[in-house]
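Trying the structure run again after the queue cleared.
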Amino acid sequence: MKASDAAARAVEQLATLSGRAAEAVTGLERTEDGWRVRVEVLELERIPPSTDVLAEYAVDLDGDGDLTSYQRVRRSTRGSSREED
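Done. Tokens:
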């Protein structure tokens, strides 16, 4: 599976399970069993938009592109600066 396909599958499957649309794919790495994709989603829309609550999820896919796990790894407001891991 190509990296672009893995990213698309992770976005699609996370949206189905969480009910939230992706804002961006923020990371992608090949693992022994498939792929780990980091996906940023809008969790809470606020006014002004700079105070929206965003979350980043780590989504694990197997070699066939099927989701095996996901978890929220970070939550922040859109206007905040974040340290890199």
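The CA atoms of residues 3 and 28 lie 7 Å apart. Worth checking whether this holds up in the mutant runs.
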